[in-house]
Design a protein that fits this description.
4 strands
């Protein structure tokens, strides 16, 4: 299944196809909870996504909850021992720490997309 993004009110949503419902499904990324929406076409997704996001944000305000997730900048990644060794060697040969090397590799990959 291929994932695509749609930006609604500056909030990204992952768009997938739900074969059971035969509809497109959107799910917002970076919220402190779940907010999804369905439609048959892109225009419908934009419309339904805006409605879903507005409802979610309003509910958060009523409950005194921050609607958007705050990212710490830290996450743990598990790799196989061969990959770990290769990363270590690549970082050392480029004069970087493993962390700096991995951040650079991730940023390069993200810029390609």
């Amino acid at each position: 299944m291929s994932n695509n993004f749609l930006i609604i009110d500056n909030v990204p949503a992952v768009i997938t196809y739900d074969p059971e419902l035969e509809m497109l499904r959107g799910e917002f990324v970076g919220l402190n909870g779940g907010a999804d929406f369905y439609a048959n076409d892109v225009e419908g997704l934009k419309r339904e996504g805006k409605i879903s996001l507005d409802i979610f944000v309003d509910a958060c305000k009523e409950d005194g909850v921050t609607p958007f997730r705050i990212y710490s900048g830290k996450f743990q990644v598990r790799v196989g021992s061969k990959t770990h060794k290769s990363i270590t060697m690549a970082a050392k040969t480029s004069g970087q720490s493993i962390n700096s090397w991995v951040v650079e590799a991730l940023e390069k990959k993200l810029l390609k997309n």
